Fold these 4 entries.
Entry 1:
Amino acid sequence: MLTKVKNTIEKFNMLKKGDRVIIGVSGGADSVCLAHIMNCLKEEYSLEIVLVHINHQLRGAEADRDEAYVMSLGERFADKVRIFSYDVEKIAREKGLTLEEAGRELRYKAFYKVAGDKGKIAVAHNINDNCETMLMRFFRGTGIKGLCGINPIRDNIIRPLIEISRAEIEGYCVENKLEYYTDYTNNIDIYTRNKIRLRLIPFIERELNPNIVNTLYRTSEIMAAEDRYLNDAAQKAYAECEVSPKRIDVEKLKTYDPVIQRRIIRLGFVDFSADLHDISYSNVENVLSLTEKESGRTIELPHGLRAVREQSTIYFCRSEERKPFCYEINIDEKIYCRELGAYILLTDKKCEKNAKLLYTIAFDYDKIILPLALRSRQTGDKIYIAGIGGNKSLKKLFIDSKIPMVERDGIPLLAMGSDVLWISNMKTSDRYKAKDTTINYLYMYLLEE
């Protein structure tokens, strides 16, 4: 079996000489087998090996036993051992996750912490795990990417046992007199994965295909090759459609087949989320519906992601919850505005220019009723524009000025009720701006902190 694992390592270029390898070890057969095999390869690859164990605090004395056992394995198979302990049940409840989701998140958080930028993370997924994963995704609904199964290598995560069966692993442990512990929850068929492993796969092996595990592995390899081909095509198409960072041209997008369109949309979120499998088919279809919608329409997605139709483009971003802000501004009272990154001062006295003065605007004091407010936009806001001989709503002004939706709530403006006197970096009302005929002036100064 050692030769078989070495062939997998070479096939997928998992290791190179001098690698620092972080091995996730639970104390079960798979991870104990992996730790032993990597120790056997340690000299050949000049490896530094660190075992990492996470105590999920879910099984009382059993969890403590597993922790102690991994510590003893570290003395035999590793240069170092790192133990992490988390109250997974509490964390899952606080984050609104299942125990499985919270446990996985915490495990990988620990692995990445120990691995740093250069370490490899070796986990013990095997060919049976791959079969279970493919069936789970199939029943939930998936495309080619989901049917690729578990990647043998992804970023700095490697899976040296991915072509080894669970039976081979248990046989290896017996042959090498390796003790291991089985989590009793693995034999409870209340979880989807357990139902597939304990009931569905044995039925398929017995009634339909005795070699289903290997059959699905071959399918996953075929799907992975086709996925790579389609992804390369989508990367080229995305480059053709992108008119500026994370912004794609709708008309160019529509020239591609829907298969490539969907992948272009997913690529739009690559820089924002490491967990793109959570962007579902329906999410992607909703984003694609923006190609037929008017400017300003938004699609909210998991993990605080957002797609926005703006003019002839769709752009991708993170949702930023901007809280409304409002500062009451009185005469001769200097107030710091965090949104402007500066102090604002309203006064009827003309200030001399100085190094701290960033900006000055003069208003017709006789047309203004105090106090004024420096605030974020509100429904009904309008600004007077001489060129159109009347008021224009801020919503329309922002749309016409192509201000991205995500930025609009953060733009400071000076207002008197719903009448806007000034919009930061944009516009001053022609009704309130001082003119040659102005008698009394009200000055607004922005000053450095």
Entry 2:
Amino acid sequence: MPITLNSPRFGTVEIAEEGVIEFPFGLIGIDSHRFALLGQGEESAFVWLHSLDDPTFALPVMSPWPVFVDYAVEISDGEAERIGLSEDDDTAVYVTVRATDDPNDCSVNLRAPILISGRRGFQVINEAGAAPVRAPLFPQSADSSASTATASSAA
């Protein structure tokens, strides 16, 4: 049976039962446990992890690999067992996006990715060494701004 979501961001949206993602352990700092992924178009790099428990809450997320091609998620065997994932599971990986008015300040959280397998979701702590909490989303624009600032101050 579909769920009707009255979202301030997307309006009235029908969510098919198979589109509901249960987070049995929740998300860090968030009370909701039922979500759906909503996009603004197939070409969009970003989607919204929208709460079905609180229609006013939606979290921007994205697949990390278009920007962070060498990104890896490493979790302990104990964590994998706790959440019930194995290497054979078809698991989608998303990272939360911190968006600001300044593109140079936009970042993603590579340390606490969201794993979705089937209709279950889990936020885990990534044990990979190169997984910062605030990885610049547009690293080349941050580098070019620094270069421009250096060139300007040298002139």
Entry 3:
Amino acid sequence: MPHSTYGQLPIPRLTPQLLSLVKTGEVYSLGVDFHEGMLTPGAVMKSYSIAPHLRHSDPSTIDPAAPAAEVIRMSIHVGTHIDALCHIAEKQDASGNPDPNGEPRIYAAAGETIPSSQSASSAGQRHLSIEQMPPIVTRGVLLDVAALKGVDMLPPATVVNADDILAAQARQGTEIGADTAVLVRTGSIARLQAGDPAYRDAQTGLDLSAAQCLVEQGMTLVGADNMAVEAMPPYDHSVHRFLLVHSGITHIENLNLDELAAARCYEFLLIIAPLKLTGATGSWVNPLAIA
């Protein structure tokens, strides 16, 4: 399938090959519930809050109808969301090597980056911001690493490496191949639902070798049931930098993959429609897996 102009995402097209992934028609919602006080990546990210803006009992100009509406305030990178390619920059020296004192640069095209200073304004991001991301209609696979290890949930701060990825594939008989979205289950989503700060502070997720292994097999989108896809600490975002800045491959974070795993549904049609939030670095989503 040809790629869109948005990184490695394929041009959205419902092909006979994709339709053939639908065997039972079962639809799985992979998003989490948003609620007051839900965990965020840190204090700089604002959690979900909701305030009534209009109540059914308020005076109405559309009597006898009585409307209600609300205002919701929340940072983009909270709850189930997809990262725009402009979300993370890498500070680089003049030769393109990572350098804490270097210039922040973001993905432009395969093997190319641009200074992030050229891509932002008071109205937000202009380069590869989320409204430019196409709808996603692609083959998805689930890699249940928790099941591989014989547990419902991996311990906090567990690192999932390339060997784990290959072992999970072998256990399930799962091939990745070109233009495949890979969703990795660690079981950690239960910690988010419980408000456990370990979900934020001791994240179980991919290391760089796992990300590289997936890209080598043709992966064009990655997601996980943790807050950052990758393991943290450390906090240098090495997987984010490798995928977003260097590979043009974006992330879906805070997925609920437990229902898919319980059904042993390892291959499906994946549909994601990012919101057209002009200038934003991501979008809240409710991905659908159709098996």
Entry 4:
Amino acid sequence: MSNAPAGKLRILTPGLGAVSTTLIAGIILSRKGLAKPIGSLTEYGDIDGVPVTDLVTSLDDIEFGAWDVYDESAYDVAARSGVLSPLHLAAIESELRAIKPLPGVFDPVWVKALADADHIKQGDNLMEMADQLVDDIESFRANGERLVMVWCGSTEAYLEPTEVHADLASFERGLKSNDPAIAPSQVYAYAAIRAGVPYANGAPNLSVDIPALVEMAELHGVPIIGKDFKTGQTLMKTILAPGLKSRRLGIRGWFSTNILGNRDGLVLDHPDNFKTKEVSKLGVLDSLLEPEKNADLYGDITHEVRINYYPPRGDDKEGWDNIDIFGWLDYPMQIKVDFLCRDSILAAPIVLDLARLLDLANRKGRGGIQEFLNYYFKSPQPMTEGARVEHNLFTQEENLFDAIRKMATG
């Protein structure tokens, strides 16, 4: 059943921040035998007794490339982010210093907290920016590497689809006319698809999940998926809510708050960017609990989400949940969850898995939306627009393994 590919796979990340540098450092440390890539399904999973590592690119064959709006090496970013220990950083300092980002596509309208960014591409219109990204992509492919792009940049301001997103022709006209409804992440997604590079969206931005780019991905046979990595608090919801539902325990309210001090926290402190994240987080419970089928139990839930920027916490996010439940004869009970997690430590293995599995899908000729990868996202992207999305983590895992099995034997 082995389908392990020959050659190199280069993971391209728009955004050389805490998540991407933690990914890069973790892979290098693992290759040196100095750490283990725990949390990665593609490292620790198996299909019918066959390790998933037999089907995907070896850690020894993974390389990196990045864009960012600040001109800092991967070492400088990792040291500033405070995710990894000085001991780990010292062991791979030379490798991290060698990784530097290309200038990024940026407009402060979309991320006001980064208004001082100065490592930015210049051009008369967004299509010129996309052309520059395609040139960058081809330079990354110069030695014949296979490529995958995973958005690891900041959360952009909230955006709903407009006419420019309705089809590919409209979108390309919008790129040439600098349509204000086209976000930087969409320019990256467009460039990736045009260059034949699989693309995943790790933030809640309206990025690749628009009709124009879905149309383009299907036309070019390029795998795409999004959006918003499922790491801390939402991961807990997709574990706990199915269990409560299974026992037919009612839920009256679910209050969630987050304390986060890294650059992501700074960005999300602005209401426009928080709105994007809030919409991504709020959709999970309705889909999981199906209140239309269980009105007595879930028909009147108060669901609140908060994010608080608290600099002393750094990358060590705290996700605190209060769940008001009720049982036999409507008697009330409560559940308190305090998840003291490490945001980038949880996100890094997701990026690795997505890169490897998108590459597998690409090698198997699977274009368009890769619904089997919804396991990794807060706001899974359905293959049919408007279709119900599955949020149950355990059902998502079954779908993921079924798809890998088919690709392995097909």
